[in-house]
Amino acid sequence: MGEIRAGGGDPEAGHLIGYWGKGTGRDVRNLVALNGKANARMFSKVERNGWSQLRKGNSLFISVVPVYGDPRSAVPTTIQVGMTGYGPGGSQVSFACTAINSRTGVGSTC
To answer: Starting at the edge strand that comes first in sequence, how are the strands of the sheet with 59-67 ordered?
Structure first.
C-alpha cells in the first residue's frame, strides 16, 4: 500500500473475487493492492456483471489474474478478468476486461 501512496495514489485492498463469488477480505490470497480508481472500476463493472448473472440464475466461470509487470513490486500493474455466465438451454454471456492499476486507470477496459 505504501508503494501506491508514494506514487500519489489512493491505495485500497482490492478483492480478486468479489462477495458474490464467495470471495472474502479475510483471506489474504484474495486481496491485492489497488489504486482507488482501479478498484472502483473492478467493483462497478466486474461485480455488477457477476451479480447480474447470478440473479438470472446463471452459473459462472470466472478467471481473475493479477499481472505483475515489475518483478520488484508487490503491486500488480493490471488485473485481467474473464467471466462467462451459463444459463438455461446452454445460453452463455461472456465478459472480459483489463483494469489498469494506476492513479487514473486510463486505458482500462473495465
So the answer is: 59-67, 78-86, 92-100
The Cα 25–Cα 73 span in angstroms is 21
Q: Does domain 2-100 have CATH number 1.10.560.10?
A: no
The dihedral formed by the CA atoms of 30, 34, 38 and 44, expressed in degrees to the nearest 10: 40
Residues 68, 74, 78, 82, CA torsion sign? positive
**20-54 burial, b if ≥16 CB within 10 A, otherwise e?**
bbebeeeeeebbbbbbebbbbbbbebbbebbeebe
Q: What is the pLDDT of residues 29-46, one digit of tens each?
A: 999 999 998 999 888 888
Where do the domains of the chain lie? 2-100
> pTM for the complete prediction?
0.86
Helices (H), 21-110: 36-41, 48-55
